[in-house]
Amino acid sequence: MLDSNMTIRSLIEQYPELKDSFSAAGLGRLVEGEVFERTGAYLTLESGLRSVGKDPQVFVKSLHDRLDAGSRAIVNLPEQPGRQDWGAIGVIPMAVHLQMEEAFNDFCVDLRREKGLDFTGRMASAQEGSDWIETSYGALDDPLQVADLCLGRGFNYFFSKQFTKRYLDTGIFCSGAEQEVNDDFAGLGVRDPLGQYRVFSVVPAVLVVREEGLEDLAVPNTWQELLSETYRKTLVLPDCSTDLPRAVLLTLYSRYGEEGVRNLGRNIAQLLHPSQIVKKLRSKAADAPVLSILPYFFAEVVNLISGIRSVWLEDGTIIEPLFTVQKSSPEYFMSDPEAMAAAAGFFAGSRVTSIFAKGNFPVLHPDIDNRLPQDKPLWWPGWDFIRQHDIEQLSSRLQSLYEAEIPNCKHGCRV
């Protein structure tokens, strides 16, 4: 039965006659080509449609009508504008996107039923990236036109000078309530001392080893080893369509400088989307990566494959932050103050925390067991480093240094 929770690959395999309906609606890239090959096995129909600003309910109904009638009617979809009066906006990892959408919708329905208050938001999949946020909101000066609460991943627009000077340094946005920190993050300094960002979860970048392909190579146990000449052209990193490389480059630079960034590029064999890495490892393809850096969620998926194991590096597993920022005062709210307070509580609460923790995104909530290795440290650049640099400018420079060392790399792609 066709429904919006099917993966796009499964849908097309079962109903190949529907492919032209996607093309007619301007959605051909979801069902063919590079995007389909990278994400089709994981991306649901609903997430894919929402990621391009389309209404899943309308489109799925049209597909049902097409199957019932056997027609080749063109599907017309209403556009969802990039910027609306959203109370909250967010970029959610694909692994937990559906659960977060459901939880947020439940929150909005309960708020309306119990208190007669409305709160709206857009929880976009990480498949879409975060560029739409800067495109929609970057040129705005009026805080009343910006969402009241924002969820971000990695070192994106919310760390740019444009956003920090306009909204954080002026006190318009802040981290919200104080938070306790899980023992897994003790001494790491993840809690923002200035109270501007609220890091609630992280994406660990885990080394995955295919033991059969090592031959005479030893398994590296530290980043210092992994960056050495020994591992030239043996490492696969997520490509520029994902957010993780930005965190990796910034964090390596914070300890090893430009040399470390260049050495990482020198040791790259190829750049792939995480789903492509998983596919190659599962199929035991001849060119399956020997060493790869994967988000923890994907690393846990391939960890079940014989001959594949994860390594939490002894000098630190790099983490990418997942965080919120929210408006500090009702004078800036576009939402009802009571609704905004309820939303802030929801995003800081147990349901959201549990969703991320179960999805293998370790959380800072002190009552959650993240099941992380106890003897392996986490590593990130820290707040002093972040505030001493123009993160956007530095990321661009490090990307250029990194790409220059990788043969056949398409320069200028987003990290």
Tell me the strand percentage band. Answer: 5-15%
Give the tally of β-strands: 11
End-to-end span in angstroms?
A: 38 Å
Q: How many DSSP H or I helices?
A: 16
Oligomer: single chain
Rounded Rg: 22 Å
How would you sum up the major sheet? 11 strands, mixed
Helical residue percent band: 25-40%
Residue-averaged pLDDT, rounded?
86
Class computed from helices, strands and strand pairing:
alpha/beta
What would you call the shape?
A: globular
Report on the structure:
The protein is α/β, with parallel strands linked by helices. Helices cover 39% and strands 15% of the residues. The protein has 16 helices and eleven strands. Strands 1, 2, 3, 4, 5, 6, 7, 8, 9, 10 and 11 form an eleven-stranded mixed beta sheet that branches. Strand 1, helix 6 and strand 2 form a beta-alpha-beta unit. The model is unreliable at 71-83 and 411-415 (pLDDT under 50).
List the helices and strands and how they pair.
Elements: H1 8-14, H2 19-24, H3 33-39, H4 45-51, H5 56-69, E1 88-92, H6 94-115, E2 121-125, H7 131-137, E3 149-153, H8 161-168, E4 173-174, E5 198-210, H9 223-226, E6 235-238, H10 244-266, E7 268-272, H11 274-283, E8 291-295, H12 296-302, E9 308-311, E10 317-327, H13 337-347, H14 350-358, E11 378-379, H15 383-388, H16 391-403
Parallel strand pairs: 1-2, 1-3, 6-7, 6-8, 10-11
Antiparallel strand pairs: 3-10, 4-10, 5-8, 5-9, 5-10
Helix pairs in contact: 6-14, 10-16, 11-12
